[in-house]
Design a protein that fits this description.
CATH architecture of the largest domain: Beta Barrel
Number of strands: 5
Order of helices and strands: HHEEEHEEHH
Shape: globular
Radius of gyration: 25 Å
Helix content: 10-25%
Strand content: 25-35%
Structural class: alpha+beta
Largest sheet: 5 strands, antiparallel
Distance between the termini: 21 Å
Number of helices: 5
Length: 186
Amino acid sequence: MGFSAKQTYAGTRLKAEDLEGRPPAVMTITEVTLDEFTDKESGQKKKLLELHFAGTDKTLSCNFANASYISELFGDDTDGWGGGRIVLYHTRVQFGAKMVGAIRVRSIEAEQILRAEAKAGAARRAAAPAALTLDNDPLDAVGPDVIMRGVESLNLGGAPRQAPQRPTFSTMPELEEDDLGDVPFS
């Protein structure tokens, strides 16, 4: 087998394709550096924050959206970001007229809520009644007078539906790096 062109020229910066199809990754920020570059289109010098992480040599060039989110978590001074834990995930965003892959950041707490909601949703789906068929239609057992009183008045033997409970921080277990797997890139 030959060499992989993508791996050969992969570089040290994380790209959206590095996370595509993988679970979100919990990362610990070890350092924040400032990268200066010349914009290809305008020729102007620009600055970008580079995030360095424990467990990998790859860095994340931090766009404005991600930098703003992280500054809400750890403060505006990047010296306070070291040791902070964030979740990196792949998504698709509008870029000009196209939808493109992107890396986005969320907090550990937001990831916990998303995972708890997904787990609760799976439990609700598993507990949902079987699909109705002509053989098991519960309305066959009642007369037209009951049907006329409205669907809310029917008690088909099941417990009344309750609004799903949104998980709270006190009910969620601590999310550990092992819960999301190893650093998905090296």
